[in-house]
Amino acid sequence: MFHILPLLTSAWNLASIDRTIATTTIFLFHDLHEVTHVSHDFSLLFEPLCTNVELTFLAGIDNNKIRAIAVLQERHSQPNLLLGIASHPNHLKASSNIIDLMFTNSISLTFEKSLQPRVKCEFMYRNKFIK
């Protein structure tokens, strides 16, 4: 008798979250990186989080857990400016997944020059080769 096992797939989706949840989660991601001694490159996100600049926060959610947060600055009649992506230390591929989700959802993006190198490369690869 054959048993059909359910196919375990990752169900990533994109959700808009408010500033308080985003800020708290990004600081928790930072603390987790520090405690586990995993290097991270999203500390530049702390400055815009602490200002009154109009920001949009998109969460990459996998199995009902926030795995990454993209910080965007909305600009009228121009593409959104991607300021950076923070991710959980055990889910470093989450930044790639959230970029894929943004492109899949047709979110118009450009990036800031100081964007994290890893995220910038992923963004340029995705923008150039996978449209």
Helix-strand blueprint:
Elements: E1 12-17, H1 19-35, H2 46-49, E2 55-62, E3 65-73, E4 80-87, H3 94-104, E5 109-111, H4 117-129
Parallel strand pairs: 4-5
Antiparallel strand pairs: 1-2, 2-3, 3-4
Offer a concise description of the structure.
The protein has 131 residues and is of the alpha+beta class. It has four helices and five strands.
Strand-and-helix sequence, N→C?
EHHEEEHEH
Strand order of the largest sheet: 1-2-3-4-5
The third-level CATH topology is Aminopeptidase
Helix/strand-derived category reads alpha+beta
Query: How many runs of DSSP E, i.e. beta strands?
Result: 5
Number of helices: 4
Structural features, described:
With 131 residues, the chain is an alpha+beta fold. The protein has a single domain (13-129), classed as Gcn5-related N-acetyltransferase (GNAT) (Aminopeptidase, 3-Layer(aba) Sandwich). Helix content is 34%, strand content 26%. It is built from four helices and five strands. It has helices spanning 19-35, 46-49, 94-104, 117-129, and strands at residues 12-17, 55-62, 65-73, 80-87, 109-111. A five-stranded mixed β-sheet has the order 1-2-3-4-5, sandwiched between helices. Helix 3 runs parallel beside helix 4 (117-129). The longest helix has 17 residues, at 19-35. The model is unreliable at 1-9 (pLDDT under 50).
How would you describe this structure in keywords?
131 residues, alpha+beta, Aminopeptidase, 4 helices, 26% strand, globular, disordered N terminus
